[in-house]
Amino acid sequence: MLIVLALILIAGLTGGGLLLWEKGGKKAGPKAKPTPSRVDTRLDWLVRNPEKDKDTGTNGTPKKPVAWFAHGNVIRTRARDITAYDVRQGKEQWNVPLPGVLCAAARRPDHDTVAVMYVRSGSDCNGLMAVDLGSGRKKWDRSLPLNDPRITDYGDPQVLMFRGKVKVMGSSESATFAADDGKVLDHPNLRSSDNCMENRASTDGKILLSVLLCNFGERQFVQRIDPETGKEDWTWKAPEGLEVRGVPSVDPLVVAVSRREPHQDFPTDLISISPEGRTRAVISLTGNGNAGDAIIDKNTVYLSSEGQETANNTQENRIIAIDLATGEKRWESKAGGNRVGWPIGFVGGRPLIYQIAQSGDGGKLVMLAPRDGSPTVYKRMPAESAEEERNVAFMGQVYFENERLFIFSEPNNKAENLLLSFS
């Protein structure tokens, strides 16, 4: 069980920072009511895993796929396609094949358009496709430009959509395209005269943040960009010895960083930043949970701690609330049971925790009181499907949208089912 929990926590932090880099939108649906009409749920439908016995993994495949909710569908990226399922019955509505293996996708659509990167030729991420989420049709497909094909590429890729534009970034290339037709709007030479390059960007749809690496990463900055003019409003410099790993929240702004130490690949601290671009508080993640599952509201970050074995040979962990202004811990909560759980969003202003199913007992959704962490069971999944639920949730992704719970399997998980839906 310790190994299982470790894998779950690691999964939330890997994959080129997909979870950290565009987590402005909350997984919990904004229209959800604070009190459900029915606590006990049912398994409405499931989707069998068509890739259970296939070897679809490549170096370009993202560790964490992306899901969107639009037009009554839940839409999911897979290794070689994008598929939409009706949220009520789980019937496939449309499918868009990819010319190659998926390697990155925009987490936030722009006016029903999403863009994905894929391996167009060779083994590099060098193709870009836009899909309309309403019609389920490909809008355009193109190759990515390179400044020097011999030495530059889009390794460690990221796709971002913002105000009619598609922004693509990698380890040594960056380009911006028109979302409507894929026309190149900007393709800078990242190794400019001041030796700085844009490495990542993040948005909540209103605010745009850019992360710059200078002197080969020795100096790192976060810039807030004016969406109208494209000019910087302010620049924040990362403290010496720290590397920027991601942006768990754009508003309020929280940056994930790690210390410059050998084999230190995951965030070690969170830094909250004021609207004026000044450091508010530094929050150490040592003993305080993992940044991959962080959810953040106006004043508080909520984290899940590592699991601990209990006397009856089960696993449990804690949810930790930390003040963004002071960096001080407000409270810890077991969320009302001997379970492993992690935050997935907010319902009625309260953090919502998913607790994974146990043998013979389905998972739970638990709301926590912001003041002291006291728990209230919001939804209970049925015991009859506990084994299937646990197999899919293992290293998977959980979304709560319009009073429905969706659990997606991790790409390399050979579970029988790809997707479960409860209501």
From TrEMBL:
<feature type="domain" description="Pyrrolo-quinoline quinone repeat">
    <location>
        <begin position="74"/>
        <end position="192"/>
    </location>
</feature>
<protein>
    <submittedName>
        <fullName>PQQ-binding-like beta-propeller repeat protein</fullName>
    </submittedName>
</protein>
<dbReference type="InterPro" id="IPR011047">
    <property type="entry name" value="Quinoprotein_ADH-like_sf"/>
</dbReference>
<dbReference type="InterPro" id="IPR015943">
    <property type="entry name" value="WD40/YVTN_repeat-like_dom_sf"/>
</dbReference>
<feature type="domain" description="Pyrrolo-quinoline quinone repeat">
    <location>
        <begin position="220"/>
        <end position="409"/>
    </location>
</feature>
<dbReference type="InterPro" id="IPR002372">
    <property type="entry name" value="PQQ_rpt_dom"/>
</dbReference>
<dbReference type="Pfam" id="PF13360">
    <property type="entry name" value="PQQ_2"/>
</dbReference>
